[in-house]
Amino acid sequence: SPPSGVSGNSFLSVERGSSGPIVLTLGGFYDQDADGQFQRFLSDASKAIAKDPDRALILDLRGNPGGLDAFGVATIQLLASKPFTVYEQITATPTFDVDYVETKRLPDGTQVIMGADGQGVTPAPDVIHRGPLFVLVDQRTGSTATDVASHLDAFEGAVIIGQETIGAYNANSSGFLNLHTLKHSKAQLYLPQLRYITSAASSTRRHRGVLPDVPIDLSPEDLSSGRDAVMETARALANY
């Protein structure tokens, strides 16, 4: 659901015209979906795919900072061609202790998170999307949204368009943060307690975000005129 002041239509939307690609816009995975808006988005997207599974599809994750892992898993499931696992391993700091999170301590003292969303095998959807898949990302795409993009890149042959993401390709630090105050400067830092390793992790992608297959640098003219060069490129490729 959109944060306060953001239009729901622009935040989560499904576009399916009589021709051209299906366009799914996902601005974030923020809350527990108390109003059911995300579930309606999933339902509308599933119906659009079921009507024409061979049609090209554009998933717009630009500006999506992430959010609930479960929503990311559900988004991947929309577009998965086979059963999948999103997270290879989730570890925690030695002092991590949250009552409702199941952990297992290894002999070296490392804590491993058990049973989190995306750790188990998620089944493929009833109707498999078979058309070309394009994922739009930018420098504001992070956390769970980056996990979605990297998974679709690694396992579903998605064409990534836009700019390198702020979130990492191989891992993220979702979840719980501790606030630390530095002794001398008194500056405050939030440091993560969890480390996620994705199933898409690759030695060639260490210390980088999701890199676009089709990089698009926005010009000052694009920004001032409101021209969406990234979406224009995706639509052109989807309609080839």
Short description:
The protein has six helices and 13 strands. With 240 residues, it is an alpha/beta fold.
Characterization of this structure:
The chain is of the alpha/beta class and 240 residues long. Helices cover 25% and strands 22% of the residues. The protein has helices at 8-11, 37-51, 69-79, 143-155, 220-225, 229-238, and strands at residues 12-15, 22-26, 57-60, 87-92, 103-105, 111-113, 133-137, 159-162, 171-172, 177-181, 188-192, 194-198, 214-215. The protein is globular and about 55 Å long.
Please render the helix and strand layout as text:
Blueprint: H1 8-11, E1 12-15, E2 22-26, H2 37-51, E3 57-60, H3 69-79, E4 87-92, E5 103-105, E6 111-113, E7 133-137, H4 143-155, E8 159-162, E9 171-172, E10 177-181, E11 188-192, E12 194-198, E13 214-215, H5 220-225, H6 229-238
Parallel strand pairs: 2-3, 3-7, 7-8, 8-13
Antiparallel strand pairs: 1-2, 4-6, 4-12, 5-6, 9-12, 10-11
Helix pairs in contact: 2-3, 3-4
List keywords for this structure.
single chain; 13 strands; disordered N terminus; alpha/beta; six-stranded mixed β-sheet; 22% strand
Mean pLDDT: 90
Helix content: 10-25%
Question: Unreliable stretches, pLDDT < 50, 5 or more residues?
Answer: 1-9
Q: What count of helical segments does DSSP give?
A: 6
Overall 3D form = globular
- Determine Rg (CA atoms, Å): 19 Å
Provide the spatial order of strands within the biggest beta sheet. 1-2-3-7-8-13
N/C terminus separation:
33 Å
Q: Specify the biggest β-sheet.
A: 6 strands, mixed
